[in-house]
Design brief:
single chain; seven-stranded mixed β-sheet; about 350 residues; 9 helices; four-stranded mixed β-sheet; alpha+beta; Phosphoribosyl-aminoimidazole Synthetase, Chain A, domain 2; 2 domains; globular; 60s Ribosomal Protein L30, Chain: A
Length: about 350
Amino acid sequence: MSGMRVKGGAGVPGGNGAARRQTITLAHGSGGKAMRQLIEQVLLPAFDNPLLAPLQDQARVDLQQLLARGDRLAFTTDSFVVDPPFFPGGDIGKLAVNGTVNDLAMGGAVPLFLSCGLILEEGLPQDDLQRIAQSMRAAADEAGVAIVTGDTKVVHKGASDRIFINTAGIGVIPAGIDISDTRAAPGDVIIVNGFIGDHGAAIVDARGELALQHTIESDCKPLNGLVAAMLEVCPDIHCMRDATRGGLATVLNEFASASNTCMRIDETSLPIRDEVRGMCEILGLDPLYLANEGVLVAIVPRETAEDVLAAMRAHPAGTRAAIIGEVAQAPAGTVVLNTAFGGERIVDVLVGDQLPRIC
């Protein structure tokens, strides 16, 4: 396990904490004693599990364990550069775990194993790294996954921004599940699991760009448990995505384009917090494009929609689930918003990004 291998496993001489450095230095990326101390004192206690314990350059997984859960492997990777790394409702570590878990879950996969690649800037406080590592462990435990391999690199001060994280994830898709952007069909119902825009608004709040009276917290959370509850009542979910960068509008445009259908949504049905709506009005932002880290968009057959909605509302991650629209035949490849004033407008894909570095 490159960057996390410690020979012997019996501890590092002088590694009792007294010699521990207070900030990350280039020595922590050298592969020598300083790196071993950092790994043993910070990362291994946070991520410890049977697959990680051998400390090899790779995690070794019994294939029978995977075959018992499904017939296809799901594999994803993501990188996280959020600024700031700590924000109301989470941090970059929690975000990295949940973001990767959710990417797997959106295809109907059962997430199992994650990797963790750390790019650390010289000067990062070790307490910050420890806090992030512990947050990753807590998020992994909540999602029921294990961080089984990883790597650590250190770059010169100014060559990055405190900490970047790459996580890859492996899961298994149960037999009979076929979730794809191409499967949306006219008559299908569009459902979201809760308030939209919370994460993007939380990052704006954390950057100190507004003196908000009430703190807006990120919605960062794992969605694999919610997806499992949905699939239990409707194994034939047609499409599903988590609405991260680009928000709800981008996901719906991807569905419309891939399936050559029209996504029609109702403005009055969209679950948006008053605080988020108010922030968007002040800054000239559109909540439809704000990032989320705990919101999924599902397209299901009309005959199963109420059962899916009930299952979602019975789960902690879906208590605010709502039907927000339906799939139509035309105009194909577009998203149409029925406004609160009785009109219509096209919801297109943004050319740029409302808020950079939100994940």
